[in-house]
């Protein structure tokens, strides 16, 4: 037991010496400047001096009675992750506001892509709104 602890201590000490990066400079000599080798370029996370143009939110629909509402699953967490949540929402509308037509769709672009076909479908249908997101 003592031998293995002693061997481990010797190995650890050797690793520390090796990682220390050599020996200290001799008295009277300056250490070489290695800062140029270690410099890194970073991006400044501060905002730009000019703010982007603000666009107001769309006006609120006074009522959903008789309207179409799209529920778009972005497939975050897999193709079945949000579907159960959207199905519950559809069932709620069927019980509480049955005149609302609910369309559940999956985005082919996934959570980070675009689905131009689905966007065109929603615009062409004249839907009152779309809930786009994830669930679960």
Concise structural overview:
With 136 residues, the protein is an alpha/beta fold. It is built from four helices and three strands. The protein has helices spanning 2-19, 35-38, 83-96, 116-125, and strands spanning 68-73, 101-106, 129-133.
Protein traits:
4 helices; three-stranded parallel β-sheet; 136 residues; alpha/beta; single chain; 3 strands; elongated
Structure description:
By secondary structure, this protein is an alpha/beta fold. The chain has a domain at 83-133. 34% of the residues lie in helices and 12% in strands. The protein has four helices and three strands. It has helices at residues 2-19, 35-38, 83-96, 116-125; strands at residues 68-73, 101-106, 129-133. Strands 2-1-3 form a three-stranded parallel sheet, with helices on both faces. The longest helix has 18 residues, at 2-19. It is elongated. The protein starts with a helix and ends with a strand. The relative contact order is 0.16. The model has no long low-confidence stretch (mean pLDDT 80).
Helix and strand content put the structural class at: alpha/beta
For the largest beta-sheet, the strand count, sense and barrel status come to: 3 strands, parallel
Output the helix-strand order: HHEHEHE
Average pLDDT works out at 80
In one word, what is the shape?
A: elongated
Strand content: 5-15%
Q: Which residue ranges are poorly predicted, with pLDDT under 50 across at least 5 consecutive positions?
A: none
């Amino acid at each position: 037991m003592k031998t293995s602890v002693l061997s481990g201590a010797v190995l650890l000490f050797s690793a520390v010496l090796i990682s220390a990066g050599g020996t200290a400079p001799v008295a009277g000599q300056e250490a070489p400047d290695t800062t140029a080798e270690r410099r890194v370029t970073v991006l400044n996370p501060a905002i730009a001096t000019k703010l982007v143009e603000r666009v107001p939110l769309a006006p609120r629909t006074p009522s959903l009675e008789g309207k179409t509402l799209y529920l778009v699953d972005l497939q975050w967490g897999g193709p079945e992750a949000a579907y159960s949540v959207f199905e519950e929402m559809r069932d709620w509308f069927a019980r509480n506001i049955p005149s609302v037509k609910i369309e559940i769709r999956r985005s082919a672009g996934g959570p980070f892509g675009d689905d131009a076909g689905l966007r065109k479908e929603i615009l062409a249908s004249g839907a009152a709104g779309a809930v786009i997101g994830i669930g679960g």
